[in-house]
């Protein structure tokens, strides 16, 4: 059984992010994973056993693993990987675009220990960050609703732009409440490599960040939404790159290493 043993980063000493699938059924402008698709050695080097990765996770005292991609729900090994991680005592969550989160999938996932999933909203938002409810976003929205109606804890995430407004933040929060999400996270894209092939609107200044944070605090005071609101602004150590000693991922050598952006110097 073969898998992709490439993994991007996640801040935290007891967590790791495992990219189990390189492909995706969407083509989002903001997504940094397209950067790695150009470097076949990152994705094409495969392993025949999971034991090396499990050993790497245990060496760093990792307790929680986020399964990601690409789109992890496309992976034919998804449930095999979940079973293996469960057998070794890891807690597990999934980062997905939710397009494949059908009721049938949810029923199968309910038989596992996975309780939390994160869904990125940026794929269904306009340049101002507002959610567009049309035929192109139906699968994502239905997937979110399927997950929440089946009792999963869903966190929504949206990427902040230079043009993001208080109105769009409020709309995101209201939709999150309507869809039954437990939390919504607004992420500042500080990594330069994620902007090389994307609009400059994704690389925002500290001044804009502070204004957006002010908007979020105003919304919390004004409407006290029934959803947890998070503001994700990585604390970068050098050249606005979030890669530092606290970020670990499963590298191509099968051991935990620093962020692949730093490793392959894609800045």
Q: How would a textbook summarize the main sheet?
A: 7 strands, parallel
Using the alpha-carbon principal axes, give the shape: globular
Residue windows where pLDDT falls under 50 for at least 5 positions: 1-13, 35-47, 192-198, 236-267
Could you tell me the radius of gyration in angstroms? 18 Å
What is the N-to-C order of secondary-structure elements (H for helix, E for strand)?
Answer: EEEHHEHEHEHEHEHEHEEEH
Main sheet: strand order: 3-5-6-7-8-9-10
Distance between the termini: 34 Å
Structural class: alpha/beta
Task: Tell me the number of helical segments per DSSP (H or I, 4 or more residues long).
Answer: 9
Share of β-strand residues: 15-25%
Report the average pLDDT across residues.
75
- Name the helicity range: 25-40%
What is the tally of beta strands?
A: 12
Summarize the structure in words.
There is one protein chain. The chain has 267 residues and is an alpha/beta fold. Helix content is 31%, strand content 20%. The chain is built from 9 helices and 12 strands. A 7-stranded parallel β-sheet has the order 3-5-6-7-8-9-10, with helices on one face. The protein has a 3-stranded antiparallel β-sheet with strand order 2-11-12. A two-stranded antiparallel ribbon has the order 1-4. The longest helix is centred in the C-terminal third of the chain and has 18 residues. The chain is globular, with a radius of gyration of 18 Å. The two termini are 34 Å apart. 41% of the residues are buried. The N terminus and C terminus are likely disordered.
């Amino acid at each position: 059984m073969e898998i992709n043993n490439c993994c991007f980063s996640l801040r935290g000493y007891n967590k790791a992010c495992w990219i189990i699938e390189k492909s995706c059924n969407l083509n989002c402008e903001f997504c940094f994973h397209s950067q790695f698709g150009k470097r076949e050695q990152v994705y094409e080097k495969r392993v025949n056993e999971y034991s090396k990765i499990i050993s790497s996770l245990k060496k760093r005292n990792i307790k929680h693993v986020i399964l990601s991609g690409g789109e992890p729900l496309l992976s034919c090994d998804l449930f095999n990987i979940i079973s293996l991680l469960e057998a070794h005592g890891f807690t597990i969550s999934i980062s997905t675009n939710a397009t494949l989160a059908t009721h049938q999938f949810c029923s199968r996932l309910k038989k596992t220990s996975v309780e939390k999933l994160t869904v990125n909203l940026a794929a269904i938002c306009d340049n101002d960050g507002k959610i567009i409810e049309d035929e192109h976003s139906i699968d994502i929205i239905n997937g979110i609703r399927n997950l929440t109606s089946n009792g999963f804890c869903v966190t929504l995430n949206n990427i902040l732009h230079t043009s993001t407004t208080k109105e769009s933040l409020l709309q995101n929060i209201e939709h999150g409440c309507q869809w039954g999400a437990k939390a919504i996270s607004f992420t500042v894209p500080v990594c330069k490599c994620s902007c090389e092939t994307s609009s400059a609107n994704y690389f925002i200044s500290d001044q804009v960040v502070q204004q957006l944070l002010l908007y979020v605090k105003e919304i919390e005071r004004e409407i006290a939404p029934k959803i947890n609101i998070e503001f994700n602004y990585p604390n970068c150590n050098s050249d606005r790159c979030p890669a530092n000693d606290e970020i670990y991922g499963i590298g191509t050598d099968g051991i935990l290493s620093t962020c692949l952006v730093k490793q392959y110097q894609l800045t």
